[in-house]
Each structure stands twice: as structure tokens, then as C-alpha cells.
Design brief:
This protein is mainly α. It has helices at 5-17, 21-48, 50-57, 68-91, 106-110, 117-130, 137-170, 174-196.
Length: 199
């Protein structure tokens, strides 16, 4: 039995391309530092999802029923991390590609998805809906990993470049504060929805 690759990629693209904590962070990072300076961070964000995919594909999710307190702790850690990121975004001021402070690097990007509830929900949805029974864990996980990395390599730089483009249009104007506040609120709203939307 094989994986239906086209529906999987379409679903992955619909999830990766839409607003969520990671994309709001990429947008804000692009707005402050520009795409070129943010590329190590973008690469870290893209590869960070692999830190969820491979353990999930080999049975991590089965532990949820056996160790609910661990997953509850992860849920609240995720919320705390995203709250901190939202606060940082709200306080950012746009200097399109010219910020004097150092842009976040690869390692900073690497932890975004492991602490992103939307990423967990997406990966669980993919494994439960697009990987048929009978596909070996190695094959199923490799297909999911490759499909998600492919769409991330397309959409993550686009979100970052969109931030740079928006920054060039409104940096130093009154709309700047409103934009950063809106990005912070969207970041927070997306994680609250991912954590509690199904309750």
C-alpha cells in the first residue's frame, strides 16, 4: 500500500501557507531584518518541524495516553513560549533589513515548531488521515518529512519576504505600531485556537 502523495502535499501546503505562530514570527523577522539576514532563522524553522515528524512517525504520539502529564506540560510550555514571542513581536519596530542588532539564527529557528501547537496538530492530522495502515513507519515518516520540508522551503521564505516588503512600505509610519500589535495578536490567537479550539 502506498501514500497518496498529491492530497498530502495539498493539505500540507494549505497548513504551512496559512497564518500561524511560525508564519507570524517569520513575517515579523523579515520585517525587522530582511529576508537575506533572516535566512539562517528560516532554515532553522523549516528543519525544526523534522524534530516532531520523526519521533511522531515512530510512535511518540502513542505515549500521549500513557504519559498525559508530559503532554500537558508540553502544551503549557508551548503557550508560554508563544506568549513570549507575541510580546517580543509587539515591541519590535520595523527597520527593513537594517536593524543593528543580530538577527535570530538557525538554533533560534529550530525550536519554533517543536513549541508550536499548530505544527503538532498538523502533523497528527497528516499521520492519521494521509498515511494508510500497512505503510511502514520508515516509509510513512519519510514521505511526511519530505512533503512538509518541500512546502516549507516554498512558503517560509515567502512569509519572511512579505514581512520585509510590508516593512519597506510602512516603517516609521503610524501604521507600524498597529501592524506589530496585530501580528502579536494573530500569533497569540493562532496558538490559543490550536490548543483550545477543539475543546
Amino acid at each position: 500500500m502506498s501514500v497518496a502523495l498529491t492530497p498530502l502535499v495539498v493539505f500540507a501546503a494549505s497548513q504551512v501557507a496559512t497564518p500561524g505562530p511560525a508564519n507570524m514570527i517569520l513575517l515579523a523577522t523579515g520585517a525587522r531584518f530582511g529576508l537575506r539576514r533572516a535566512l539562517p532563522f528560516v532554515a532553522g524553522v523549516a528543519l525544526g518541524k523534522q524534530l516532531i515528524i520523526w519521533p511522531a512517525g515512530f510512535g511518540l504520539l502513542a505515549l500521549a495516553g500513557e504519559a498525559p502529564l508530559v503532554f500537558a506540560a508540553l502544551k503549557w510550555m508551548s503557550l508560554a513560549y508563544i506568549l513570549w514571542l507575541a510580546w517580543r513581536i509587539a515591541g519590535m519596530r520595523l527597520t527593513p533589513g537594517m536593524a543593528e542588532d543580530a538577527a535570530p539564527g538557525f538554533l533560534a529557528g529550530l525550536i519554533v515548531h517543536p513549541l508550536n501547537p499548530k505544527a503538532w496538530a498538523m502533523i497528527i492530522g497528516i499521520f492519521t488521515n494521509f498515511i494508510p495502515q500497512g505503510v511502514t513507519p520508515l516509509v510513512g515518516t519519510a514521505v511526511v518529512a519530505a512533503a512538509l520540508l518541500l512546502v516549507q522551503l516554498v512558503f517560509h521564505p515567502l512569509w519572511t519576504f512579505a514581512g520585509e516588503t510590508i516593512a519597506r512600505a510602512i516603517a516609521g509610519r503610524p501604521a507600524e505600531r498597529w501592524l506589530m500589535a496585530a501580528l502579536a495578536l494573530l500569533t497569540l490567537a493562532s496558538v490559543v485556537y490550536a490548543l483550545f479550539g477543539s475543546v
